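It is worth pausing here to work through a concrete case rather than discussing structure prediction in the abstract. The textbook approach is simple: state the sequence, then state the predicted structure, then interpret. We follow exactly that order.
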Amino acid sequence: MTQDTRKTVAKQPGRPIRTGPAVTLGALALVGVAGVVPGSPLDDGEQRHGDRGEVVSVVPVAAHSRAEVAGALRARHIGTAPLRYGVLAYRVTYRTVDPHGRPTTATGLLTVPSGGGHRLRLVSDTHGTMANRSYAPSVAEDARTQSYLFAATGRAVAAPDYLGLGEGPGRHPYMDTRSAVTASVDMLHAARTAAGLIGRSLTRDLYVTGFSQGGQVAMALARAVQNGDAPGFRLKAVAPVAGPYDLQGTEEPALTDGRVNDVSGVFYLSYFLVAQNRLHPIYKDPAEVFRQPYAGRVERLFDGRHKDEDIVRQLAPDVRRLLTDRFYRQLREPAGGLLEALRANGHACDWKPEVPVRLYAGRNDTDVPIGNARTCARTLAGGGARVRVLEVGPVDHFGSDRAALAGIARWFSGDAA
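Step two, the predicted structure:
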């Protein structure tokens, strides 16, 4: 969840200074913004896969001074790191593919510093779990603080909304690693084009971070980039925060043994089952998995329009009372479609990074237990990778993100040495 639904969540300070209507590629060309058009060679010789990553439109959504960025960070108790610039933010709509490989569109946020050099290094920042499409970075001001932090230090930032969130069509395939990676890779290409259209350019260097669900996506995205799935980009460093990397060995067992708090456990598990059932045969009728009255409402609740806190209020108080007896036993000993879904999406750390990796986690995290980071670190180190687990103190899930961000920004600004 991107908000702590166990209590009322205050809106973050900072309002957009400038907003504007959608700017199509044609309109940008008419006003003389330098860039590249779809189908033309990119400045680094990058090759596209079909029209994936092609920009459909660019929307200016916000501009903030350096002082405003610093104020927003202080209000969230995030260290300010070496802030040098104000920021400009744009919603980018681009072409990608759905989980079945069919053409679709997605949205994401491109943020750049308002000053500094023409050529910028890029940070990919992937967000945490959200059920409401309007919470996504390209739409919600509250979801942009991390992008503002990295951009204010002098980097461009690409923050994909993922499929089915923001202004993308359809429902979000929650925790489907493969489609999250394709949407994130295609956002990188779209960011390069969009940066050109606003008079900036991107180098090949890519720094990858993300929080919670986005931490898991960040690890899988980094693997894809290193493997050559994002031509034109060169992986430099990876710094995810509190990611559920080990679904089968750590996160799923923690739902029933007390390591994950009741509210978050119900939310995450319900979302996972409903979304994954569209990709794996977990159930034919929700009543096979969920007790009544939850079986009759759970799929409707995850339609992309309900607020996270409203979903929680309409579900069971804990996982045991959410599930049927039969499925609760299966949760503890996964089989069938559930096991297939866990295995398909639980191997983000099964590779050998050739760049520095830092895994950030909080000791008191009861959404994504720190065992996820430790297991990931062992897996990466077993392959000979350079990896560190940075425990950011006795903080909870959202506290781990706040505690980690400034350090990640400083690390990236120092070229991840």
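Step three, interpretation. Strands lie at 23-24, 55-64, 87-97, 103-113, 119-126, 156-160, 201-211, 234-241, 357-361, 387-391. Residues 2-49 have pLDDT under 50 and may be disordered.
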